[in-house]
Specification:
alpha+beta, about 25% strand, DUF3055 domain-containing protein, SAV0927-like
Length: about 100
């Protein structure tokens, strides 16, 4: 049985976050069940979880517009990814830049 002294914590923080749970169906009739968590942890990006597939990704406005990114991150076809992109544009803020 491992002892906790063997764990090498690189970070460990607790933060109050806000999570929005959204279910929607696009024109392709694909159903999306998403949890979008806003946190200060990811430099203004959101943690987007697809609850059906058990896939999550840290998404910012720049990622939403990156060609092929949503298709890759959420294993979606082009049409479904465009529907997700349309939703995320409403939810994920403007690009956040930090030094």
């Amino acid at each position: 049985m491992p002892h906790h002294e063997e764990l090498d914590f690189l970070a460990d923080s607790t933060e109050q976050t806000s999570t929005r749970f959204v279910t929607f169906i696009g024109p392709s009739l694909k159903r999306f069940d998403l949890a979008v968590t806003s946190t200060a942890l990811f430099y203004g990006k959101s943690l987007v979880a697809d609850l059906q597939q058990g896939i999550s990704a840290v998404i910012g406005a720049d990622d939403v517009e990156e060609p092929g990114y949503l298709e890759f991150a959420f294993k979606l076809g082009e049409v479904e990814a465009e529907e997700l992109r349309e939703f995320l544009r409403l939810v994920v803020g403007m690009p956040y830049f930090t030094d």
